[in-house]
Amino acid sequence: MLEAFQESHGITDMVVVADAGMLSAGDLQAIEDAGFLLLVGSRRSKAPHDLQEHLDTDGNKFST
């Protein structure tokens, strides 16, 4: 869906912005593997376990 949206609108760079509750670790990996930039908002204490594990081990993250 993201690639189709990008192609139909002629977008070369796209950032996916989502709440942590909307994505699983598998979703995050698929988005990253497709080459999209990704911002995921969550309080560390509220992130689902698989999402937090992905961010800790695979993702590029920063904390405030």
Helix content: 25-40%
* Low-pLDDT residue intervals, each spanning 5 or more residues: none
Strand order in the sheet with the most strands: 1-2
The tally of beta strands, per DSSP, is 2
Largest sheet: 2 strands, parallel
Q: Based on Cα principal axes, name the global outline.
A: elongated
**Domains counted in the coordinates: how many?**
1
Mean pLDDT: 78
What is the overall number of helices?
A: 3
Describe the structure.
The chain has 64 residues and is an alpha+beta fold. The chain has one domain (2-57). Helix content is 39%, strand content 16%. It is built from three helices and two strands; from the N terminus they run αβαβα. It has helices at 2-8, 25-33, 49-57; strands at 15-19, 37-41. Strands 1-2 form a two-stranded parallel ribbon. Helix 2 (25-33) links the parallel strand 1 and strand 2 (37-41). The radius of gyration is 12 Å and the shape is elongated.
Draw up the topology in text.
Layout (H helix, E strand, L loop, with lengths): L1 H7 L6 E5 L5 H9 L3 E5 L7 H9 L7
Parallel strand pairs: 1-2
Features:
64 residues, alpha+beta, 3 helices
